[in-house]
Amino acid sequence: MRRFFIIFRRQCKAGVTNFIRNSWLSTAATAIMVVTLSIGLTTLIANMTFSRMIKTITDKIDVSVYLVDNITPKERERFMSELKAQPNVREVNYVSKDRALEIYKDQNKDNLELQNAISQTDNYLPASFQVKTNDPNKIEDIASTINRTPNKKLQSDEPSYSGDRKQAIDRIVSIARFFRIAGVAASAVFAVISILIIFNTIRMAIFNRRDEIEIMKLIGATRGYIRAPFLIEASLYGLIAAGITVAVSYTLLMGQADNIASYVPEVLYTRDFFRDHMWEIGGAMLFLGVMIGILSSSLATKRYLKVYTKSRRRSKT
Amino acid sequence: MILLDRVTKNYGKETTALNRISLHIEPREFVIIVGTSGAGKSTLLKLLTREERPTSGKIVVGGIDYETLKNKDIPLLRRKIGTVFQDFKLLPNRTVFENVAFALEIVGMSNREIRHTVPKVLEIVGLTGKEKNFPSELSGGERQRVAIARAIVRQPKILIADEPTGNLDPKHSWDIVRILEKINHYGTTVILTTHNQDIVNKLQRRVITINHGKIVKDQAKGTYMQS
Q1: SS3 sequence, chain B?
Q2: All domains in chain A, ordered by first residue
Q3: Mind telling me how many Å the CA of A3 is from chain B's nearest CA?
Q4: Residue of A nearest to B151 (CA)
Q5: Interchain CB contacts (distance < 8 Å): A and B
Q6: pTM to 2 decimal places
Q7: pLDDT tens figures, A104-162
Q8: How high is the ipTM of this complex?
Q9: Residues of chain B contacting residue A228, judged by C-beta atoms under 8 Å apart
Q10: For residue A159, which of A138, A178, A278, A285 sits 20 to 30 Å off, Cα-Cα?
């Protein structure tokens, strides 16, 4: 056991020493990891903000069902509960004629002429149900309930989800869906590219030191003994790179979110999320950096640690 | 100590580096293997250190039959054999002390023992005072002495030196040979390959001459005449 600890301590020390002595290589590998991890984290931040933006837009999509003036409270209740029973319906708000007028007045409070015109005539605005959905993509299900014959009679006008508005809603929904998929795809592509770049950098770093590995083998070091310092060195690249990435990203996000919010207000949500989950996100990034380092390094050393490597097959006789 | 029985090593179908070589080396012997370039000297040593596998034949070193040797046990075998290479094979990022200490670190020796052992070995090879230098700061002769120190620090029963004087001038070559003689005197079997006629002839040791992959001469106190 004691021997195990002596060897383990030595491997850690060798890893750190190699990191320091190969400073240019360590700096290059760490820098590339910083860039790729930053791209990854930025994509995540952008994706989150964008998803929020899409959610804000789609949340505003609701269906207005305009009711006839002579609807009885009983009929209204029945219609409302039928709508509420739909699985895709999140919320149904009843807007009375008086409330509709209030809203209308409020929306046009700067237009005095219009205000006077309204107050001098009868309230011609209909009462309505404002139906909010869980998934705007499946608005059709609700439309069929609204258009059922007994319900149809209770309506003074076509529901808002019809004609030109229907087209506009459909368009927003399909655009939102496209961007959501595109965001996930872009994140996946960036993640793969990042890992490939990091892997290649570490592979080049190890290629540079293949002779060293060969020498260690000849002196009688086991594969595990040779590999461990390389893994420690590569996990140091990951650890430092992830640390820098998180520090820079947080500083920028916390400092600049207010400025960006004037264009994209949803960034504030992302900022708050990152602030509230600082330790989880930081920890996950460090873990990710270390794992990528270890994985790349163990794959890269594998080739040079074979007992009989190809380069040795032809002997100097 | 070392037994080779009808050992053949082919590279592909065309090249035969060693052709049915049989050889026996006793403990504490000092054996010089000579031959022209391409004769098969280095292949023979690589078979002993298990860098290469024979195409056919039997090799037994220190009681270990290579036929039954598993890949995972190769590092353990190499720890029992000290090896010195023509191109030194020092770790460039480690100091003289660290290069020698590395051979002890891998077997799990404590730092205290290492601090005690390494200076003694460096003294034997005449490198006291150079402990903190990196290989790039040393002359060829000094580098080879570091390599020897690393090879003998574990007190192996066998020391293999593959043309250790190949890159050195005559004075430094003799320094190295003297160290090898000293090690042999302490009880280690030494196998040396060389091109250096002067060294072979003055040493008056067992000389095995290899030509075209075959042993053509094996003399108890041999000489070597380069053609």
Answers
A1: CEEEEEEEEEECCCEEEEEEEEEEECCCCEEEEECCCCCCHHHHHHHHCCCCCCCEEEEEECCEEHHHCCHHHHHHHHHHEEEECCCCCCCCCCCHHHHHHHHHHCCCCCHHHHHHHHHHHHHHCCCCCCCCCCHHHCCHHHHHHHHHHHHHCCCCCEEEEECCCCCCCHHHHHHHHHHHHHHHHCCCEEEEECCCHHHHHHHCCEEEEEECCEEEEEECCCCCCCC
A2: 2-57+173-308 (no CATH), 68-155 (3.30.70)
A3: 6
A4: A219
A5: 81
A6: 0.70
A7: 888 887 887 777 777 666 777 888 888 888 877 777 778 888 887 788 778 877 777 66
A8: 0.87
A9: none
A10: A178
